[in-house]
């Protein structure tokens, strides 16, 4: 099973549990949280295939999803930075409509990108990494829009 994600393509990344999207703050251009979808460029991400995994780059300001220099530990915030961080995109499952989901994983670690507070759907819920478990708050859809 593989992920159906193309290199150099634009996506909105949607949390399976909350249906909120990965949003890079337009205020500080650094904080990353779950937010209701509005299709702004701060919610659009370009996936770039590189050796060992993927870069995930914000379309709005060119920042990359990263750990901001921190090591892979529980509750480390995911942020936007100039660091070309490499992620693994691991297939997870298919939903009832046949849409493939995946986990965004720290290489050589069991840590996954996690919509915190067990997938709280409230706008502004922080996104961090946590050790992998079966929670749908660690599972993501990469939705490509024909308008991108």
Question: What report would you give on this structure?
Answer:
The protein is an all-beta fold. The chain has one helix and 13 strands. It has one domain: Trefoil (Acidic Fibroblast Growth Factor, subunit A), CATH 2.80.10.50. The strands form four sheets. Strands 2, 3, 7, 11 and 12 form a five-stranded antiparallel β-sheet that branches. Strands 5-4-1-13 form a four-stranded antiparallel β-sheet, with no helix packed on it. The protein has a two-stranded antiparallel sheet with strand order 6-8. β4 and β5 form a beta hairpin. The protein is globular and about 30 Å long. The model has no long low-confidence stretch (mean pLDDT 93).
Q: Which features does this protein show?
A:
globular, 13 strands, mainly beta, 43% strand
């Amino acid at each position: 099973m593989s992920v159906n994600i193309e290199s150099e393509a634009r996506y909105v990344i949607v949390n399976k549990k909350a249906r909120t999207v990965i949003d890079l703050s337009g205020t500080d251009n650094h904080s990353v949280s779950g937010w209701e979808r509005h299709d702004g460029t701060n919610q659009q991400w370009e996936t770039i295939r590189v050796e060992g995994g993927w870069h995930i780059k914000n379309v709005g300001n060119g920042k990359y999803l990263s750990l901001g220099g921190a090591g892979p530990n529980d509750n480390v915030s995911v942020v936007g930075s100039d660091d070309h961080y490499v992620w693994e995109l691991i297939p997870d499952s298919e939903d009832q409509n046949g849409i493939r989901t995946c986990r965004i994983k720290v290489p050589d670690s069991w840590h996954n990108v996690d919509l915190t507070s067990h997938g709280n759907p409230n706008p502004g819920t922080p996104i961090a990494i946590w050790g992998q478990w079966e929670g749908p708050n660690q599972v993501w859809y990469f939705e490509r829009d024909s308008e991108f």
